[in-house]
């Protein structure tokens, strides 16, 4: 196997795509609860997540930004426009509803609605030999960022539900967080995105109980 494709295989796995989905939802929608979701997103923060998962961009011969599947070593500047960020945030808000679902049936129903919005037919792409073969559901390999985010994320979450027969994740129960998180394994249902949030909520509950006892 070609070294470039071998090195990039892991970042195109379903788990990696799902982790990227959760990270982008969180950076694009804010973490202060649904009623206070940030109206804008920091392009540097969004770009940092994209780079962390191997997404880079280059300029084509016409000077327009073109998304490619290059290896992570080729860190060209990501050209995210204001319109790109708006479209990506809209996609992230739609994807967030899957994590807010109460059970697997509701999550599947919401994913079916998102899959109906995708622009392309299911196909395999290697980005002209620059990446391992992986599935696409967007209209074009170099399509808009928002379209790519919705299609690739919906596809990854669909496979997780198919494989595990349970919701792909949830929304942190901490009122000061509200990040989405992925379900890991088959243990008890998680309520928090991290140990930090779980500990913070336990401490807060303990302090409330102490004040009530006084």
Model description:
- By secondary structure, this protein is mainly alpha-helical.
- 47% of the residues lie in helices and 9% in strands.
- It is built from seven helices and six strands, in the order αααββααββαββα.
- The protein has helices at 3-8, 14-29, 43-52, 82-99, 104-115, 145-164, 195-213; strands at 56-59, 65-68, 123-125, 134-136, 169-171, 180-182.
- The strands form three sheets. Strands 1-2 form a two-stranded antiparallel ribbon. Strands 3-4 form a two-stranded antiparallel sheet.
- α2 (14-29) packs antiparallel against α3 and α2 packs across α4.
- The longest helix is centred in the last third of the chain and has 20 residues, at 145-164.
- The termini are far apart.
- Residues 1-7 and 58-77 have low confidence and may be disordered.
Give a quick summary of the entry.
With 214 residues, the chain is mainly α. It contains 7 helices and 6 strands. The strands form 3 sheets. Strands 1-2 form a two-stranded antiparallel ribbon. Strands 3-4 form a two-stranded antiparallel sheet. A two-stranded antiparallel sheet has the order 5-6.
Total helical segments: 7
Strand residues, percent: 5-15%
Helix content: 40-55%
Catalogue the unreliable spans: 1-7, 58-77
Give the topology, please.
Blueprint lengths: L2 H6 L5 H16 L13 H10 L3 E4 L5 E4 L13 H18 L4 H12 L7 E3 L8 E3 L8 H20 L4 E3 L8 E3 L12 H19 L1
Antiparallel strand pairs: 1-2, 3-4, 5-6
Helix pairs in contact: 2-3, 2-4, 2-6, 4-5, 4-6, 5-6
Keywords:
214 residues, two-stranded antiparallel ribbon, 7 helices, 47% helix, globular, disordered N terminus
């Amino acid at each position: 196997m070609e070294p470039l494709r071998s090195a990039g295989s892991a970042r195109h796995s379903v788990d990696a795509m799902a982790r990227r989905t959760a990270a982008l939802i969180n950076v694009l929608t804010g973490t202060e609860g649904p009623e206070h979701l940030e109206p804008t997103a920091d392009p540097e923060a969004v770009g940092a997540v994209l780079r962390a998962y191997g997404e880079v961009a280059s300029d084509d011969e016409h000077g327009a930004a073109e998304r490619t599947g290059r290896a992570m070593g080729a860190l060209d500047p990501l050209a995210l426009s204001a319109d790109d960020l708006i479209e990506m945030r809209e996609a992230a808000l739609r994807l967030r509803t899957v994590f807010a679902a109460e059970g697997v049936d509701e999550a599947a129903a919401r994913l079916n609605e998102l899959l109906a919005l995708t622009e392309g037919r299911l196909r395999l792409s290697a980005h002209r030999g620059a990446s391992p073969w992986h599935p696409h559901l967007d209209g074009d390999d170099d399509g808009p960022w928002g379209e790519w985010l919705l299609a690739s994320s919906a596809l990854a979450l669909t496979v997780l539900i198919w494989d595990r027969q349970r919701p792909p994740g949830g929304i942190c129960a901490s009122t000061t967080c509200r990040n989405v998180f992925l379900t890991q394994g088959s243990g008890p249902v998680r309520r928090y995105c991290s140990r930090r949030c779980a500990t913070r909520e336990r401490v807060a509950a303990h302090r409330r109980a102490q004040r009530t006892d006084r």
